[in-house]
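Section 5: illustrative case.
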């Protein structure tokens, strides 16, 4: 179960021709069509072992009404790269096609998306209208927040532990939604607000709201592998295994060992690191499991940004932490049971997925039959790669 799966509403984002993707020997298309929903279905389901996914939000604010004050619907609401209405529509389309639950979806609404500039405060009527729409009409399964963005033009971002977020939690709690998926790390995405992607605000938010669950995306990796800062020695200390902003997230748990409602997610964390810096990857995964537990690490890939996620799936199947690091830093070997939890059991629990029911439904559903036909007719993923495997795999 992949909790970080994306496509776009007619945008080409120039991710799929990233240098690290090319270095794997992949030659992916990077046009609008390659980021679209049809290719999303192909790469996520037909070209990988992914059984279930969460269509994950990208920062955007829906336009609620037209100039005459009429409530807008569907595409007329716009909303940027991947709006909430489109995630909902696509979730329903996938599940109706399949005859089973293959997709869940997130909602983009966040505390600073509808703003009263006259009072310099939340436009509460507008925000609550959107909250009810996303929960009741769209049927979202989690909020997806980007603290370092400002689609409502509030003049700044927000933090998980500020007053505006606290008000949002209370309103969301009243309506029964208590799952927050939050982007942390990758600070380059905003030159002015990037500091708000630091996970330091997770601590107070989680402690003050023990009935909420917080999934911290990217495990708070500050710099992606394509950034010059990634190679700066000051951002990774191999003598301790600590690296920028991941350490902040780990320290939160060390200070609060009884905290059980924070979950490190590993999309655009595990897979790029295992290629660019395997040592750093072993430390990152080792610490996630050591401090948060194998039952709290969540699988995500950030695909289709990087093509089909199958290469990441195969890498994690084969991944292991070295004996040397386990002995020196107290990490644990990752068992098959741990990998099963990380690959989907943990996320299924958070999202309330009935695994017994789904396991019975998947083999007979339409998606499985379509995938079988696709493979039988010679279908292949565009980023297939072949290399060494260990003898015990």
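Designed sequence:
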């Amino acid at each position: 179960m992949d909790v970080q799966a994306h496509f776009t509403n007619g945008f080409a984002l120039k991710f799929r021709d990233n240098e690290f993707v090319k270095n794997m020997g992949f030659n992916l298309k990077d046009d609008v069509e390659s980021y679209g929903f049809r290719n999303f279905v192909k790469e996520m389901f037909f070209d990988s072992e992914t059984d279930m996914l969460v269509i994950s939000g990208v920062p955007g604010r829906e336009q609620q009404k037209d100039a005459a004050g009429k409530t807008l619907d569907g595409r007329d609401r716009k909303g940027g790269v991947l709006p909430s209405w489109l995630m909902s529509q696509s979730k329903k389309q996938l599940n109706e096609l399949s005859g089973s639950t293959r997709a869940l979806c997130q909602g983009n609404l966040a505390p600073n998306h509808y703003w009263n500039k006259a009072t310099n405060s939340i436009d509460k009527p507008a925000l609550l209208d959107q909250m009810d729409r996303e929960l009741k009409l769209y049927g979202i399964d989690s909020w997806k927040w980007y603290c370092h963005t400002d689609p409502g033009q509030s003049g700044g971002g927000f933090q998980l532990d500020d007053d505006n977020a606290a008000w949002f939690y209370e309103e969301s709690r009243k309506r029964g939604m208590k799952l927050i998926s939050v982007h942390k790390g990758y600070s380059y995405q905003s030159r002015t607000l990037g500091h708000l992607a630091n996970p330091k605000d997770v601590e107070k938010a989680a402690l003050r709201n023990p009935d909420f669950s917080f999934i911290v995306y990217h495990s708070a990796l500050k710099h992606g592998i394509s950034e010059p800062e990634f190679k700066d020695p000051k951002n990774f200390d191999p003598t301790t295994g600590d690296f920028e902003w991941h350490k902040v997230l780990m320290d939160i748990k060390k200070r609060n060992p009884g905290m059980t409602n924070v979950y490190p997610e590993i999309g655009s964390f595990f897979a790029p690191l295992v290629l660019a810096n395997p040592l750093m990857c072993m430390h990152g995964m080792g610490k996630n499991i050591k401090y948060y537990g194998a039952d709290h690490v969540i699988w995500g890939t950030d695909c289709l940004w990087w093509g089909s996620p199958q290469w990441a799936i195969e890498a994690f199947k084969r991944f292991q932490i070295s004996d040397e690091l386990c002995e020196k830093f107290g990490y644990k070997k990752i068992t098959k049971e741990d990998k099963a939890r990380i690959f989907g059991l943990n996320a299924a629990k958070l999202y309330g997925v009935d695994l017994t029911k789904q396991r019975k439904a998947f083999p007979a559903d339409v998606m499985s039959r379509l995938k079988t036909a696709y493979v039988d007719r010679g279908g292949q993923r565009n980023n297939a790669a072949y290399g060494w495997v260990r003898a015990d795999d």
